[in-house]
Amino acid sequence: MKTMNFIKVPAIVLLFAMGACSKTNNDTTASISTDDAATIMANSMSSNSGGMVSVSADVTLNAQLTFNANPGCGGTKTYSFSRQNPQGSSVTYSYAFNYTYTLNCVNNIPDNVSSTANSTGSFDGPNLSSNDSGTSTFTVGGLAPNTIAYTLSGEYKRAGSFTQKTGNMNKGSSNVDIILSSLTIPKTGGTIASGNAAFTLSGSSDKGAFNFNGTIAFTGNNQASVVINGTAYVVNLLTGSTAKS
């Protein structure tokens, strides 16, 4: 068991929507707007809220440590640690993470590492506060010494309660499910350079139920482009801020 504290971040976007032509940012068929949905998704992904991009950085780093340690085909390593906001930060957060890694072999030669993880914690920022728990399953490739980038595929889920401090000031619960395919993470940078994902966001607010679908395109530079029901957003994966693009 190792304990470590570190923050890494990548960049990400969401692009897709079922029925985009019939729903707008002022959609009256859902209890929250697409602006609100973008805020929740950004919170679920950004590094300053212990989101998916932090987990992807943790997973690749510890997968490399597991590969290097070579516990044997099918062997496992476990890691746990906590992460808190730096002193003087404009947001406060505290999350605990637990990971298990398994070395997978091809023809008895180490090839990739799979991981399972869970997390719990809370976040309080200028736009949103939340209490969450998360789970993930990932497979990491590109671990051999002669490769320059990791490949990452898998699924990240996060669920909990939220309170919005801007916009419609909603309170409620949310469930986020992000399915990632073939992300590229350079070993020298640690941030997502490219890749895609699909997501669902569901839950309820004090105004009723909501359900959104979308896709994610990672554009590098700790940013992502997000399209929810026909409305496009740029998400800053360091801060969790969103802006229409």
Task: Using brief descriptors, characterize the structure shown.
245 residues, mainly beta, 2 helices, globular, disordered N terminus
Number of strands: 12
Task: Specify the biggest β-sheet.
Answer: 12 strands, mixed
Oligomer: single chain
Query: Hey, roughly how much beta strand do the residues contain?
Result: over 45%
> H/E order of the elements?
EHHEEEEEEEEEEE
> Segments where pLDDT lies below 50 for 5+ residues?
1-29
CA(first)-CA(last) distance:
44 Å
Rg result: 18 Å
Helix content: 10-25%
**Global shape:** globular
Number of helices: 2
The pLDDT mean sits at: 85
* Secondary structural class: mainly beta
Structure description:
The chain is mainly beta and 245 residues long. The protein is 12% helix and 51% strand. It contains two helices and twelve strands; from the N terminus they run βααβββββββββββ. Strands 1, 2, 3, 4, 5, 6, 7, 8, 9, 10, 11 and 12 form a twelve-stranded mixed β-sheet that branches. A hairpin with a 7-residue loop joins strand 5 and strand 6. The radius of gyration is 18 Å and the shape is globular. The N terminus is likely disordered.
